[in-house]
Design brief:
By secondary structure, this protein is mainly beta. Helices cover 12% and strands 33% of the residues. It folds into 3 domains: 69 residues; 160 residues, no CATH class; 33 residues, no CATH class. The chain is globular, with a radius of gyration of 33 Å. The protein starts with a helix and ends with a strand.
Length: 363
C-alpha cells in the first residue's frame, strides 16, 4: 500500500485528488478479471471451494433438531418469601429452573442442617429453611431462608422508620463473640413500615458487641456482618437503600445522645461539605435471643444502621494495596488508619503531639 500513499501525495501536490478504489472492490486498470490457477494445487483448492458453496445452498432444505441441555445447577425458591409469621407456616419449595429435586431442612442460623428431598416444610416456630437443588445426584448451591414467628401484638407493629428483626437461638452473653443470627429488614420509604410484607433483606449474619466503655451499657452497639447461606463468607446486600456491602455497624444512641441523632447528623454535615463520612439510616429493632417467638419484650429501640469504615469503591475509595506492593509507587497507598487505643504492640503508631495511637485498618 505504500505506492498508493505515495501516488496520493504526488497527485495532491499537483492540485487534484485521485479517487481510489480499494483493491478488493473490483478489477483495476489493466486487469482482465479473475485469473486461471497457476498450479494444480490452486486448481484443486478452487474446485473444493466451489463444491462447498454448492452444498451449502441445500443446507436449509430440512429441519434440524437441536438438543437443549438442562442447566448444570439451579437455585432453590420458596413461597412465601422470608419474613415473619403468626400462625404455623407451610413453605413451598421448588427449583428455579424446574429441574432436579429440592432437598431442604429447617435449622438455626448457626449451620446448615441435614437436608432431605421434599417440596414443602412447615414451621411452627422461628427457623431457617436451608435448601438446595440436586440434579442427577450433584447438589447445587445452598440457600438460606429465615422466618421469624411473632405474636399478634408485634404483627401489628408499624413505624415511620425501617424495622430490623434479628433472631438467634443462643444466649445474650454469646454476643461478646461472633454470634450467628437470622436478620430480616423491612422498609417502606413511601409510608409507615410494617411486618406484613416479605423482608427486603433476609440473610444469615453475625452480631458482636462493639465498643469499650459503651459495651457496659444496657443498650449495646453491634458489629454486623452479612453471611453466606452455608459459610461465614461475606454476602453483600443493600441495607436500607445504602450501597451493597457485607460489613455494617448497628449504632445504639442512648445515654450520651438523648436526641439519638448526633453521630448521624455529624456524618451528614461532613458529606454535605464534600468530605467522606459513612452513610447512615435510622431504624427500630427487635432482637430475639434464645426464644423462638418474637414478643414486644424483645424490642431494643432505635438503632442507626451505619456503613463500617473500610476500603471500597462505595466506602473509603483508595487504591487497594496487596502484599507484594513493596516498591514505589504502589507502596505509597492507599492506607486506612483509625484513631483508637493502640491494642497489641506493633498494631499502631504515634504521630504529632496529639497523643493517642493510630492503628492500621487497611491493609
Amino acid at each position: 500500500m505504500k505506492h498508493w500513499n505515495w501516488l496520493f501525495a504526488l497527485v495532491a501536490m499537483m492540485g487534484c485528488a485521485p479517487t481510489l478504489a480499494p483493491p478488493e472492490a473490483g478489477p483495476q486498470s489493466g486487469d482482465s478479471g479473475p485469473q486461471p490457477p497457476t498450479s494444480p494445487e490452486e486448481a484443486d483448492s478452487d474446485s473444493d471451494s466451489d463444491a462447498d458453496t454448492d452444498t451449502d445452498t441445500d443446507s436449509d432444505s430440512g429441519d434440524t433438531d437441536v438438543e437443549v441441555l438442562p442447566p448444570a445447577q439451579s437455585m432453590a425458591e420458596v413461597s412465601p418469601r422470608p419474613g415473619v409469621f403468626v400462625d404455623p407456616l407451610t413453605v413451598a419449595l421448588a427449583s428455579a429452573d424446574d429441574v432436579g429435586d429440592v432437598h431442604a431442612c429447617v435449622g438455626t442460623p448457626r449451620a446448615v442442617c441435614a437436608m432431605s428431598r421434599t417440596d414443602s416444610l412447615t414451621l411452627d416456630e422461628s427457623g431457617v429453611v436451608y435448601a438446595q437443588v440436586v440434579i442427577e445426584g450433584v447438589p447445587g448451591p445452598v440457600s438460606a431462608f429465615p422466618y421469624v414467628r411473632v405474636d399478634d401484638e408485634v404483627a401489628a407493629f408499624t413505624s415511620n422508620l425501617p424495622i430490623l428483626v434479628a433472631w438467634t437461638d443462643l444466649a445474650y452473653d454469646d454476643f461478646w463473640v461472633n454470634t450467628p443470627v437470622a436478620l430480616l429488614t423491612f422498609d417502606d420509604p413511601t409510608g409507615r413500615t410494617d411486618l406484613s410484607d416479605p423482608a427486603d433483606v433476609a440473610s444469615r449474619a453475625r452480631l458482636r458487641i462493639r465498643g469499650s466503655s459503651s459495651a457496659g451499657l444496657a443498650k449495646k452497639n453491634f458489629d454486623l456482618e452479612l453471611w453466606a447461606a452455608d459459610s461465614s463468607d461475606d454476602a453483600p446486600a443493600s441495607m436500607l437503600g445504602m450501597p451493597a456491602d457485607g460489613d455494617w455497624v448497628l449504632h445504639a444512641p442512648s445515654y450520651y445522645d438523648d436526641a439519638l441523632v448526633r453521630n448521624a447528623l455529624g456524618y451528614a454535615l461532613s458529606r454535605d461539605m464534600g468530605r467522606y463520612a459513612p452513610r447512615t439510616a435510622f431504624s427500630e429493632m427487635f432482637l430475639v435471643v434464645g426464644d423462638r417467638v418474637l414478643t414486644y419484650d424483645q424490642y431494643v429501640g432505635v438503632y442507626v444502621v451505619t456503613e463500617e469504615i473500610e476500603r471500597g469503591s462505595d466506602r473509603v475509595d483508595v487504591q487497594r494495596l496487596d502484599e507484594d506492593d513493596v516498591a514505589l509507587p504502589e507502596v505509597t497507598g492507599g492506607y486506612v488508619f483509625k484513631r483508637d487505643r493502640e491494642g497489641e504492640p506493633g498494631e499502631g503508631f504515634y504521630a504529632g503531639d496529639g497523643g493517642g495511637a493510630f492503628s492500621f485498618m487497611d491493609p
